[in-house]
Amino acid sequence: MDKDNFKVAVIGAGLVGSSWAIVFARAGFKITIYEADQKTRAGVLNSISLKVQQMVVSNVIQNHDKLMAHITLTDSLENAVKDADYIQESVFETIDTKTAVSLEIDSFMSSHAVVGSSSSGIPSSEFTNDCTNRNRFMITHPVNPPHLHKLVEIVPASWTNKEAVAICTELMEKTGQVAITVKQELEGFILNRLQGVLLNEAWALLEEGSASMEDIDKALTFGLVPRWTCMGPFETIDLNAPGGIKDYAERLGPLYHAIGISREGATPWSKELIKAAEEERDKLLPRNKLEERSQWRDQQLLAYAKFKAQQEKQDI
């Protein structure tokens, strides 16, 4: 995979698509971006430039102009994809929208190109069924924003070519992302299924009055999250008992089973519960401060990205 000749197209340049462009350009690939909305398209290079400059200031990357030189903007989807080796689709996440853009990509893509879709829960089989090249389409679900998060879930459909999956995996690794392969199409894939379990429990604890929203967040922020920054749940429990994972399972397996049983028959988050949660959050963070807090979050992620980069150098 020669970075000088391997071409990438990014279709859809909203928050996720523009972030993907940074991922590929940072790794030295030539990127062509297409965005159908004229207003969004007009501002996308400036938006990317600001994010890249933040990365430079935070010492996550070194050269703003070098990265930006790898990015080209076009007003034609055909021009973006016709010579592309890899196409990252990041349009609005509805089946109708993704079906329409997948068919359009399909009509212009080369016979060897691979297409990844930034879907967080919709399997590619639901919107690529009628594509002539459907065997080269798959899900590549990033953690948002991908230029600050490394994980990418690769989810092939039943008809996706193994060679296409291998090409996508190699590309993600060359960009510095961490690719995991979901072996079968699951609603929500892996990341959101894990997150969903935690979210459902958090909402249930809030609804029953076991703790405030703020304290539930603190239980994660100051309890589980610090160790989760460097290891997952299986390694965590393996290290949390003298005899390792078997010892932990024997000691605490019955407790977790009992907790699971206590939540059987879970109900959807009610309108009343959501309203109460919104009111509680408003006291902690007024709605007009959301954008400011989002920028704070991105600064925290930049600091974490810098820390992880330093740690990886030490591990080598």
Envelope shape: globular
Put simply, the count of helices is 12
The total strand number stands at: 8
Radius of gyration: 21 Å
Strand arrangement, major sheet: 3-2-1-4-5-6-7-8
Weakly predicted, low-confidence segments = none
**CATH superfamily grouping of the largest domain:** NAD(P)-binding Rossmann-like Domain
What does this structure look like?
There is one protein chain. The protein has an eight-stranded mixed β-sheet with strand order 3-2-1-4-5-6-7-8. It has 316 residues and is of the alpha/beta class. The longest helix is centred in the C-terminal third of the chain and has 26 residues, at 290-315. The mean pLDDT is 93. The relative contact order is 0.09. The two termini are 24 Å apart. Helix 1 packs across helix 2 (38-57) and helix 9 crosses helix 10. The protein is built from twelve helices and eight strands.
Protein topology:
Blueprint: E1 7-11, H1 15-26, E2 30-34, H2 38-57, H3 64-68, E3 71-74, H4 77-81, E4 86-89, H5 95-108, E5 114-117, E6 137-142, E7 151-156, H6 162-174, E8 178-181, H7 191-207, H8 213-228, H9 233-239, H10 244-262, H11 271-284, H12 290-315
Helix pairs in contact: 1-2, 9-10
Brief descriptors of the model:
8 strands, 53% helix, Rossmann fold, 12 helices, single chain, 2 domains, alpha/beta, eight-stranded mixed sheet, N-(1-d-carboxylethyl)-l-norvaline Dehydrogenase, domain 2, 316 residues
